[in-house]
Amino acid sequence: MKFLLKPLAVSIALVSMPSFAAGTILSELGSLNASTAGAGSAAISEGAESAYSNPAAMSLVEKSTLTGSLQVFNLNLEYQDQGSNGRFGGSDSHLDGGNAGSALPLGSVYWVNPLSDKWALGLAMASQGGSSVDYGDDWRGASLISSVDLMTVQVNASVSYKVNEQWAVGLGLVSEYASIVQTQQFTPNISSEYEAGSMEFGVNLGLHYTINEGNMLGLTVRSGLDHTLEGDFRLNRNGNIGTYDASLGLVAPAIIKMSGYHALNDQFALLWSLDWQDWSKNQSSVLILDETGHQANIDRNWQDTYSASLGMHYQVSHQWRLEFGIGYESSPLSDTADNALNQYPDLPVDEIIRVGMGATYKATEDFSINFFVEYLDLGSPEIRYEGLANSALVGQYDNDAGIAGITMNWQF
Q1: What pLDDT sits at residue 244?
Q2: How far apart are alpha carbons 95 and 142 in whole angstroms?
Q3: b vs e for 81-101, b when ≥16 Cβ sit within 10 Å of the residue's Cβ?
Q4: Given this model, what pLDDT does residue 127 score?
Q5: 66 vs 47, 50, 55, 185, 407, CA distance in Å?
Q6: Domain count across the chain
Q7: Given this model, what pLDDT does residue 9 score?
Q8: C-alpha dihedral over 111, 116, 118, 120, to 10 degrees?
Q9: Which domain holds residue 336?
Q10: Residues 72/405, Cβ–Cβ less than 8 Å
Q11: How many Cα atoms within 13 Å fall on the side-chain side of residue 278?
Q12: Hey, how many other C-beta atoms are within 10 angstroms of the C-beta on 13?
């Protein structure tokens, strides 16, 4: 049966390539500053999170510190059809797929250990993001994607050096594991599953400048990671399964972030961040079936993104502090008529508006706990994916997400 499945697998892959869930980089997840919508992350270090967010800021940590965080990330993707036709057509409302998003539990752990008044070491295990999208096998775009689960985990080993009372530098070595499981339903009797993983390595550079005790600046640069997810493409035709070696590219962009922290008085502090993300590297997604050399391509045509966030801390008492922030991130797709043609249902992208809030409780001099929530308006992107035989998937999304979590800091 394999000699029948092989040409079918190639032909299906060439017209309906398994894609990757892109545009899921949420730096506040790893930097633990969702309560200020990402503001200030490279300038401050209140626990051990600087081992991830800015290794140079580890110079601010005076004691050996352990930080742990538990979070829930809830993604909502609501698709409304607006005239799909051909193989994507149909008048039944259930074909729209409902809410394709879902909730994901997340966790991270960080440790910083000062070696002297100059040197500090750090270790972090965190994630920049991921997604879990499930439209079901009977929605109108199931031949493009039924479901996708993308997971990324980073381990950062960092070192910082305090040059003098004002300047500090840092270097982090990054190893990231990415995995993906994606399914497609071509017909009621023909489906596929692509499962793959990849490990890539990069660096995280940091610079920190202390103007005085109440005013600090931070700059961090994370290198891009170009994953090649290698695994199995399995085609199920009426219960007959053929398995083929395949590989798929996944881009994690380079990121430059600058942040500031400014104490206005004993109660109020202002925080800000400016970011650039190198999403223009994500021009296409390419699947290669290794046994045949055939490859398929989906154009992405993304551009770099920019973001800005502004936050505040309000010290209510010695033990309690309130936090708030807002942020904006540009879309990786240009605002033109071709925008909808470059969307894909793995995760349609648009501008992002962030609103975060939280509270920190200092139980003792060596233990504190932070509670935070963040709402992300992911926009209303339009999609017009044009397939073969004059088929088109035409519709609009209403997307948002929420993050809730708790962080604990121990000093010892």
Answers
A1: 87
A2: 9
A3: beebeebbeeeeeebbbeebb
A4: 80
A5: 7, 11, 15, 46, 11
A6: 1
A7: 35
A8: -10
A9: 2-411
A10: yes
A11: 13
A12: 24
| Burial of 263 per CB tally in 10 Å (0-12, 13-18, 19+) | middle
The dihedral formed by the CA atoms of 101, 200, 65 and 319, expressed in degrees to the nearest 10: -30
Residue among 234, 151, 143, 253 nearest 193 (CA):
234
Q: What is the CATH number of the domain that holds 265?
A: 2.40.160.60
Q: What is the structure's pLDDT at 25?
A: 64
Q: What is the pLDDT of residues 235-263, one digit of tens each?
A: 899 889 988 898 888 888 899 999 999 99
**Per-position DSSP letters for 141-193, written without gaps between them:** TTTT-SEEEEEEEEEEEEEEEE-SSSEEEEEEEEEEEEEEEEEEEEETTEEEE
* Contact call for residues 311 and 323 (beta carbons, < 8 A): yes
DSSP of 195-220, one letter per residue? Answer: EEEEEEEEEEEEEEEEEETTEEEEEE
Question: Which residues, 6+ apart, have CB-to-CB distance to 30 below 8 Å?
Answer: 49, 52, 53, 108, 124, 126, 127, 128, 154
Token pair for residue 358? Answer: 């939280």
Residue 272 sits at φ, ψ, to 5 deg, of -150, 160
Q: What SS3 state is found at 69?
A: strand
**Number of residues assigned to the chain:** 412
The H-or-E segment that residue 301 falls in is none
Q: Residue 73 is encoded by which pair of tokens?
A: 């990330």
Residue 290: per-residue pLDDT: 66
Q: Give bridge partners of residue 360 from the DSSP assignment.
A: 321, 370
Q: Which residue positions in the chain have pLDDT lower than 50?
A: 1-23
Quote the pLDDT of residue 325: 98
Structure-derived torsion over alpha carbons of residues 329, 333, 336, 338, reported in degrees to the nearest 10:
-160
What are the start-end ranges of the E strands in 213-283?
215-222, 225-237, 240-252, 255-263, 268-277
Whole-Å CA distances, 317 to 46, 313, 403, 407: 17, 12, 26, 20
Question: Considering just the CA atoms, what is the radius of gyration of the chain in Å?
Answer: 23
